[in-house]
Design a protein that fits this description.
Radius of gyration: 17 Å
Order of helices and strands: HEHHEE
Distance between the termini: 21 Å
Number of domains: 1
Largest sheet: 3 strands, antiparallel
Number of strands: 3
Strand order of the largest sheet: 2-1-3
Number of helices: 3
Structural class: alpha+beta
Shape: globular
Oligomer: single chain
Length: 108
């Protein structure tokens, strides 16, 4: 499955092994403003042209150039460090570009 797969693709893949399938989206895409649009276009272009480097160190370097200083991750996750937003159920038959991450839940 491609990295930018859609809800119908995920649903089709999962329906071969599961019935009663639900797809959820999380981490909404920030699509406001020209900056977000330009960054999104650059990312999609880099993926299509196979310009994404293989090492994490090089990727981090490019992120610093294009996106600014990276925020370090904490060593531990603690309750209350970020607000909880539950995933949103999305239709399995429609392409959805509103979320960065898709989850599928199916029953055998």
């Amino acid at each position: 499955m491609e990295p930018n797969s859609t809800s119908p693709e995920l649903s089709d893949l999962m329906s071969k092994s599961f019935f009663d399938l639900n797809v959820y989206g999380d981490f909404p895409v920030d699509s406001k403003g020209a900056k977000s649009g330009i960054i999104s276009l650059m990312k999609r272009s880099a993926v299509k042209l196979h310009l994404i480097p293989g090492t994490l160190k090089t990727r981090a370097y490019l992120k610093r150039i294009f996106m600014g200083k990276l925020v370090p991750l904490p060593h531990e996750i603690t309750e209350g460090m970020a607000p909880y937003e539950p995933p949103v159920e999305i239709p399995t038959d429609e392409v959805n570009r509103d979320f960065k991450i898709l989850y599928a839940v199916g029953k055998k």
